[in-house]
């Protein structure tokens, strides 16, 4: 699976990219039909309490799957986003099994 990262108005983090890629690879092993992932890390200037945003869009057969989280650090946002994607992928896999 191909993973593309974009850091919007923040510095690039190799450790965050590596951790995210490891988590997405686990998803790719579990759900073989994944093609690629677009990962965006952003800073919300208006939200000083949380404001760390992680968007992930997965490319797969059929409609794309998207999830977004806003937490107080990027690691927590990324983990919550991947949890949301996992739930969506389980539902999608059930649809594939019925056909």
Protein model, in words:
This is Putative sigma-54 modulation protein. InterPro entries: RHF-like, RHF/RaiA. Pfam families: Ribosomal_S30AE. The protein has 99 residues and is an alpha+beta fold. The chain has a single domain (2-98), classed as Double Stranded RNA Binding Domain. Helices cover 42% and strands 30% of the residues. It is built from two helices and four strands; from the N terminus they run E-H-E-E-E-H. The protein has helices spanning 14-30, 74-98, and strands spanning 2-8, 36-43, 52-59, 65-71. Strands 1-2-3-4 form a four-stranded mixed sheet, covered by helices on one side. A hairpin with an 8-residue loop joins strand 2 (36-43) and strand 3 (52-59). Helix 1 packs parallel to helix 2.
What topology emerges from the helices and strands here?
Layout: E1 2-8, H1 14-30, E2 36-43, E3 52-59, E4 65-71, H2 74-98
Parallel strand pairs: 1-2
Antiparallel strand pairs: 2-3, 3-4
The CATH architecture can be named as: 2-Layer Sandwich
Average pLDDT over all residues: 91
CATH superfamily: Ribosome hibernation promotion factor-like
Distance between the first and last residues' Cα = 24 Å
Q: Would you state the CATH class?
A: Alpha Beta
Largest sheet properties:
4 strands, mixed
How many structural domains are formed by the residues? Answer: 1
Helix content: 40-55%
* Strand percent estimate: 25-35%
- Strand numbers in spatial order across the main sheet: 1-2-3-4
Low-confidence runs (pLDDT<50, min 5 residues)? none
Alpha carbon gyration radius: 14 Å
Shape designation: elongated
Number of strands: 4
CATH topology: Double Stranded RNA Binding Domain
Class derived from helix and strand content? alpha+beta
Element string (H = helix, E = strand): EHEEEH
Contiguous helical run count: 2
